[in-house]
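ok so heres the complex, four chains, lmk if somethin looks off
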Amino acid sequence: MSETAANVEPVGKREKTKVANRQAILIAARAVFAELGYEAATVRDIIRGTELASGTFYNYFKSKEEVFDALADDGARRFRPILRMARENANSFADYLHSAFVAYFHFIVQDNQLEGKPIEERRPHILRMDTPEMTAVYQEVRQSLEDAIAHGDAPHVDADYLACACIGIAQEVGSAMLRRSPHDIDAAADFVTGLLLKGLLGAARKS
Amino acid sequence: MSETAANVEPVGKREKTKVANRQAILIAARAVFAELGYEAATVRDIIRGTELASGTFYNYFKSKEEVFDALADDGARRFRPILRMARENANSFADYLHSAFVAYFHFIVQDNQLEGKPIEERRPHILRMDTPEMTAVYQEVRQSLEDAIAHGDAPHVDADYLACACIGIAQEVGSAMLRRSPHDIDAAADFVTGLLLKGLLGAARKS
DNA sequence: TTGCAAATTGACGTTTCGTCACTTTTGTGA
DNA sequence: TCACAAAAGTGACGAAACGTCAATTTGCAA
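and the predicted structre for the whole thing:
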């Protein structure tokens, strides 16, 4: 699943190749980062994976760094509607939390499996949190939590810290889950949901 | 506080300058990463911050990346005894958790005293958590949790997931705390400890 | 003091970077 | 359909950073 959330008008050949070139660069970059690792990869390596000339790269991105951000942003953009659906379909706060974590864990499993034949430990999901779409995801999480607090579905906690805690948990427990085989999404989601709702007692093994 | 955990024998001028040079490079690198950001920094920028010649750098590190890893490893090495003391001095599991988080938050506040770019830009995009000392910290956390479980001080939870959750929470809430001013270490530690022990209810504001 | 190994040095060839003058492509309106 | 302007693509080029290595300096021990 390496399609991007390409929103809108395919008309006009200009626009069309522009989108296609940008996409080609991102796809090539993803492959190169997976193969060589982010640090070792060069802009030249990336464009070599496309049909474009080196100068063209700079019409689309300022640097390797910006390409990486675009990839991260892209991931966040694809995840956001999933998260929103989890929110809208939930019939309780506990249900929202659980389905949000299930959605996230499912997402990273998908995102990593087609990623690499070389099973890359080189890509733990510690991504920059300051791209626009990443910030939007944080805001979305935080807003959900504030709503729940306002509606009395959750206690009056520091929503910023709680959102950060949820994200930190999701990232770290998500990575741990990916290291296990098979990937037990539900077990991980049960664990974190229980932990958040009831603390250690809530996280205790059900068995 | 940028001293490193330099363990052992200072004897011999050879050994001494070797340690000093390595240290000089690390200190310069820390300053350069803070000032220019990790991505923008070059190996030359780093050695310019020392009295050494460019070639000498490569006697100590293969690359900028390796310098960063050494810094991270160094931080973990300095933090480990602090964590251990928190463990040994604690008179309950709750106390251990709380003092461990206080110790960590205190540590990162100290560690980010340098002025310059925002914290996120001082780091590489892909953070490796698998340096020896980092792993040791994880093991230490996990071991503490397993001991607590074995002694009946904590419920029977998945220690791996719980350790990851603690680390993820510490990192994200810690970063959030650093963004606030003033840095309220105790408030943050109370929040995360309450959250872990009792869930949302435990994290609720005390006011 | 002398001799050798270890460490430092900076100049050098190599690789990558980012730019820019030039070419090709696309859209538009006569 | 054609002409023409704006947009996008191209690759060669100078600048910058890389990593190496022969020459030199430094430290240690005989």
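quick notes: The mean pLDDT of chain B is 91. thats all i got rn
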